[in-house]
Amino acid sequence: MKKELSQNFDYCLLDDAITHKKLKFNYKKNKEQDHTELLDASANRFDYEQCKDSYWNPEKFSLLYGTPLWEQASQSERIILNQLYWVAYYSQIISAEIATIFFNQTAAAGLYGIEDFRIACETLDFESMQERAHIDAFKKISEEVELKLFGERIFTYPMRPYYYETMIFQNTNAIKKFWKRLQLQAYSVLSSGNAFIACQYLTVRGLRTLNGKIIQHQLSEFYSSLSEEERLKAPVPSAVSYYHFMDESYHFNSSNIIGTDLLKLLKTPTSFEKNIANLGIKGTLKDHSNFSTMVNGIFWYDPATFQAAYRVMRSKIFNFSHAEAIEMLEKCFCKENNGIHESFKTHQVALESYRNYLSGIDYLDEYALRGGKMNETSIEKYLIQNTNELNKFKKKAA
Fold this sequence. Notes:
This protein is 67% helix and 0% strand. With 398 residues, the chain is mainly α. The chain has one domain.
């Protein structure tokens, strides 16, 4: 029987030779340059004592960088704040990658509705394997650091299901968490049984990782700019940042190929499919509508981080009294400072890059194309919100 007579669907991945070639090439290069073994080896040899006196990131990627806490910190305290940025940032990445592993599989199931889907599914399978290695490395290093510095968790957490809030510091409550869980579980069912929604998940994944790509490129340069001899002496977490970024570069490529090029092969989406797609994009834009002075480059709801910041300030690192910690929280989060302005600037760069990313997607409505809820963010609103929430925190912490 001729190949064309065996097709049961109106579309076939092989019908678009360019897209198929792109996917195949990206998958091949990712496998050739896979950093899983290097990540595993790095995590296994990590010893905090060996790199506790070194910066792990460029200086500006430090916890509460540019705030009054940073300005008054000693050199040794700044080094720890730099290391805690790594711990906090990659703790957030763990949460995102847990969800990615699950939705990679549901999307792959949805792609069964496309003839010759194998290369797309194998791409997602391979990336999920890499994500598990990323999580393992981040988790092992971060937990050891917090154990040594605090003897307890501050930013890390036990493993969690995919349907938890992706942002680990979010404006949420029990009802919101339950509703988010239902939404994610419903989306998993839809994406596993619909080729359009499966491909569109990769559009969402690409959007969610776009800002991460910008930040992680800068984090990776701390290691990639070193000579071969210097790399041998570099802190292990810096190497892990580089290896992770190299893997994620291929993941971002596959998000674009499947979520943009492959998606164009499919029939024009129905009204229902368009609605689901818009909800997915606008949900991401809502998740990213906050900017964080605590961790520049992450979209945390900063009032949810007050407890973590308070514990850091009260720890043996800073030895603040209760009153001193509360006063410093107010200076860092409720009064204009360079840290707030730099974090807002990062948010606005992300917003502009998101608009550019979404501009060619014809099934999105105008609100999503403008940036959704991200477009409503301002420093003025941030300061009012933080002041109100800090007053509540003071009463609880008294």
